[in-house]
Amino acid sequence: MADMIYSVVVYGVVWLSGLSLLAPSSVSLDEALVKLENWRREYTPSELDQWCVIIRQEARVGDGEVGGRLHNVVKSESVPGRVRRAALELAIAKANAHTAEDVVNTLADWCDPEQAPNQRELAVRGMLIWTAAVEHRGELERVMSNQEPLLKLLVRATKYGSLEMLYGLMTAIAESPAPLSQRQNAALSIIGELKDWTSCPKPLLRLLGPTAIPALREQVRQATSAEDFNLLAASVLAHLGDQEIVPDLQRWRPALADRAPVYSDVVGSWLWMIDAQHPPTKLLEAIRGKGGRWAIERAVELGIEREDIRKVVLEHVEDLQSRGVNNEDPRIVDIKAEALEVGVLAPDELPDVTIPGWLHDAEW
User: Is residue 100 part of a domain?
Assistant: First the structure.
């Protein structure tokens, strides 16, 4: 299903990239809208280009009637996906706050894949959700005074598509202009859905501080079986160093190990992470041990002096090198990457250690 959605998304992007600013024909704005509303199979991509240019040039931004008509085209299952995508982009470009919210609410209602009448419509809806929620999110944020409907769409859309789409949605939530409390609630909603994940992507993790701990504890303690246990919530609590959750983790560890033996080690790593933060200065020793990137990141978050962290990083790398570990080894590369990302090292430090381009972009 994800491959189908992705292929339609790619097709839509490639097709629309060929749109050219053709000279408007004698067709009026109303006639161009009628063409989209009553799409016929014999209409060509070139004609669609022309009608879209007319609408874009002639329609007034904030015109509720035009926005409503374009919204209806987006909802019409009898219209081809490429036309519905074009109508969606125009609707967003010309929207007022009311029209934008109507469009967002429609897309949010589509976010249950089981509600799509067939696989073709499922793929088209996935493409339209991605188009609005990720590609044109900024335009919607600017026109919508109330960000909650858009956050609702971003949360519900996590049920769709690939990991790439999930990451785009999580990043959109993290970067939203909505108040932090609303973005935290959105992050907590996603954590409630993705119970089987054992680590939290950075875009969401950065939204969750001490104020989120009570809600995260509740998600963990709602479990009635190992299969129902919220691993993702537990992983965030471990990152935050929540000592109160330790007895819960110890109690659930055997049952989780029965579910899958690897979970015993996972819970063990969480217990170690919690212990490594009390007191916070223990993280400096964790950098030299198995803490690595995580210990550097958490030490910065907890306000440990950056120069102290820098000194430990340089000493640790020097120690590894003295023991014959080469500069391409992940133990060295990862340490430098994290130290650069959080601003502990300057770009010209450890010049012999090269960080691959893909690692610069790693956010999971």
Answer: yes
Residue range 118-143, pLDDT digits in tens: 999 999 999 999 999 999 999 999 99
Q: What is the mean pLDDT of residues 245-257?
A: 98
Give the DSSP letter string of 281-299: THHHHHHHTT-HHHHHHHH
Q: Residue 297's domain spans which residues?
A: 282-360
Domain membership of residue 155 (yes or no) is: yes
Residue 213 is encoded by which pair of tokens? Answer: 């701990």
Residue 34 CA: distances (Å) to CA of 8, 38, 80, 259? 25, 6, 15, 58
pTM: 0.83
Using the 3D structure, point to which of 178, 212, 239 is the last residue of a domain. Answer: 178
Considering the chain, what is the average pLDDT of its residues? 90
Helices (H), 260-356: 262-275, 282-288, 292-301, 306-322, 330-341
Distance (Å, whole) CA 115 – CA 121: 10
Digit-coded pLDDT (tens) for 69-85? 999 999 999 999 999 99
Contacts of 317 by beta carbon, 8 Å cutoff, 6+ apart: 332, 335, 336, 350, 353
107 in any annotated domain: yes
